[in-house]
Design goal:
mainly beta; five-stranded antiparallel β-sheet; 6% helix
């Protein structure tokens, strides 16, 4: 679609067939952005994602009243508009593997991709996933913390991540099979 052809394309109204529910499910995944080998994106939908050999996604779990809070803020530019995206998550793993492959790289400025299962479903009732960080990558922000005896964190990490200047607020995955297997090391 050409820049001059950007028009509204659909009715803006509630769908009785697929009602809107805010928020995300409890489980999500985090991937070191440098471990993403290939992605295929068409009209905002990720139809394929693959990881480099030996890479895997790490499961994250949301706790509390608002699972994995996110904020998406539109930033108007002089020539190009952008989005700032914030994802705050809990990594319920304080093991050596999670520390070496997630926490340590985050603290060194590595960029990450986060996949969250949306509470809203596809029109056929199957899961819908939202992907943050594919454009510029999410980076760790001030306020990351770990409290060994905090029951809400289960000894894990509270991690605020932000992606600034992204061309889109997020992408979607409509096919659950794309997400399945990301926690197993790629070969």
């Amino acid at each position: 679609m050409a820049l001059c052809d950007i028009l509204l394309d659909g009715n803006i109204q509630a769908s009785c067939d697929n009602p809107m529910f805010g928020g995300y499910e409890q489980i999500g995944w985090i991937i070191n952005k440098s471990d993403v080998a290939n992605t295929t994106i068409e009209e905002g939908v990720v139809s394929a994602i693959s990881l480099k050999e030996g890479a895997k996604a790490y499961q994250i779990q949301s706790t509390g009243q608002q699972p994995t809070p996110t904020t998406q803020t539109f930033v108007k530019g002089n020539f190009v508009n952008k989005w700032n995206n914030v994802v705050t998550m809990t990594l319920l793993d304080n093991g050596v593997d999670a520390y070496n492959n997630v926490i340590k790289p985050m603290a060194s400025g590595a960029k990450f991709v986060v996949i969250l299962e949306h509470s809203r479903r596809n029109t056929d009732g199957t899961p819908l996933f939202e992907v943050f960080g594919l454009s510029k990558g999410l980076t760790l922000q001030d306020g990351a913390s770990r409290e060994e005896y905090n029951e809400d964190l289960g000894g894990g990490w509270n991690l605020p991540l932000e992606e600034n200047g992204a061309p889109t607020p997020s992408y979607f995955i409509t096919d659950k099979s794309i997400v399945e297997g990301l926690e197993t090391r790629a070969v």
